[in-house]
Write a structure and sequence with these properties.
The chain is mainly β. 0% of the residues lie in helices and 49% in strands. The protein has no helices and nine strands. The strands form three sheets. A four-stranded antiparallel sheet has the order 6-5-8-9, with no helix packed on it. It has a three-stranded antiparallel sheet with strand order 3-4-7, with no helix packed on it.
Amino acid sequence: TRYVAVTGVQTCALPIYYRVNNVQGSIEQPVILDFVNDLQISVYPNPFERELNFVMNTEAGDKIGIYLYTMAGQMIHRHTETSVNGGYLHYRWECYEDLARTVYMAVVVVNGQKHAYKVKRK
């Protein structure tokens, strides 16, 4: 049996795959898998009421798109893909629609790579 501790992973509907190597962990000394990336994307607060913040560290020329979907796949918000100057990026979405108090999928697309986060409206 292999025991693995996973750090740096926010709630995500996408599967996480890794390849087992010759290192085996135990309860006392688990193998640490760290999924924190250079973007350091944060989506908060979760649960949210009327506003949702997206914060990330970007490189000059990165193309960023931010989307919000229902769990049925219906897009309810789109921040058009834009090219950024790099550095700290903060995008705030204010919810003016009368959205159901349920779970949504926030998707941040950076240079074509999707990062998905479950968020809940309280």
